[in-house]
Amino acid sequence: MAEIRTVTTLRRKRDEIVSAIKQYERLLEQSKADLAHVLGAIRLFDAGGGAKDIPAYMDLHRVFKRGETWAICREALAAKGPMTTVELTRELMRVRKLDPGDKVMVRALQMRLVSSLSKQELRGTLARQGKRKGVVVWRLPAEKTLV
User: Do 68 and 30 belong to one domain?
Assistant: First the structure.
């Protein structure tokens, strides 16, 4: 039986609306992140001059304790097996309850993590397994057996 033209038109319209909603949701998330950055800038420029008025600059060196990033990554690799730098970054952000929607922080954390993991690789406590979609895959080295 042939489909009624009205039903076909309504289904096409439904698909258009669903697509529009998804696009608006993406724009809303980006707008929320943009608003947070603007509000932060307003706080800096609107400060009264007192030490308590200006928020402390938070850099990534103070977000994690010394050796904490490697400890979190080592636990994740031991539990889940080989993971990419992006996956390890998500794991760090999940453990520390950081906003994964803040693209600036995600990128900064990824760059810092690459440096940290490369140092662990030089020490022999971590190994590269290759690349997946252009991102390095990290793994723990095989256990050495004593003879």
Answer: no
